[in-house]
Amino acid sequence: MELVLSEADKIHLTKKFAEFFKNSKNSEFIVFDLETNGLQGSEVLSISAQKCRLTRSKKIETLSYYERYYYPTKPYNWGAIKVNNLSELLRG
User: pTM for the whole thing?
Assistant: First the structure.
């Protein structure tokens, strides 16, 4: 599973990363995503990290990807499952 972005988000991020890396010799970065089952007193449902590189042609290239699901000790917050698109979590 890879990070899914709209075209508008990709353009926005690419411009921001290009600006950030303009004077840098390193164009690699890591994007983290943490999903929880609520806002207060919540538990982590999943964590993912995607190592990327901004290419010379100003495109974001995925180098590696990590994803891990966790099972909460409290009952599922079904709204959080739906909003975070975590149906894979329920498949086991």
Answer: 0.58
